[in-house]
Design brief:
With 142 residues, the protein is an all-alpha fold. Helix content is 80%, strand content 0%. The longest helix is centred in the middle third of the chain and has 32 residues, at 59-90.
């Protein structure tokens, strides 16, 4: 009976990872590829680790497997969100059939803030003049 459960769970996990790899090929833009890959791969790896904890009933193996599943479930969505957000604000294009862009206002605010928040680049003459080095060098040469 345990062999049947392990076979079913591992098959579902392997299919989830297979669907993640198909998602990379079939999805039209970066954001959809990222979404399908993270979701399916997290499910697939989690199910395969669950199979490992069933096959090896030792408490240390089960503890490690469940700890990995726990950290995978916590970190994968956050990492995907941050990668997607960085890609969006860096200008990665959306799919041409995307209907709603909920971050368009935030992108405009972000770009306006990043442009106004950066210090202005000073020319070399302005920087030297502010330090008073020009006045000192002129006095030395005369």
């Amino acid at each position: 009976m345990t062999d049947i459960i392990i076979g079913v769970i591992s098959t579902i996990g392997a299919l989830a990872i297979f669907f993640a790899s198909l998602g990379i090929l079939r999805m039209p833009d970066f954001y959809l590829r990222l979404s399908v890959t993270v979701k399916a791969a997290t499910l697939g790896v989690g199910l395969l680790l669950l199979c490992a904890s069933i096959i090896f009933p030792d408490i240390s193996v089960s503890t490690k497997a469940f700890a990995i599943i726990f950290f995978l479930l916590i970190t994968s969505p956050i990492a995907a969100h941050m990668i997607g957000r960085a890609a969006y604000f860096s200008g990665t294009p959306l799919w041409k059939h995307t209907l709603i862009d909920e971050f368009a206002d935030k992108k405009a605010e972000y770009l306006a803030q990043s442009e106004s928040g950066l210090p202005e680049k000073e020319s070399e003459g302005d920087a030297v003049e502010k330090t008073g080095q020009i006045a000192d060098t002129e006095e030395e040469t005369q």
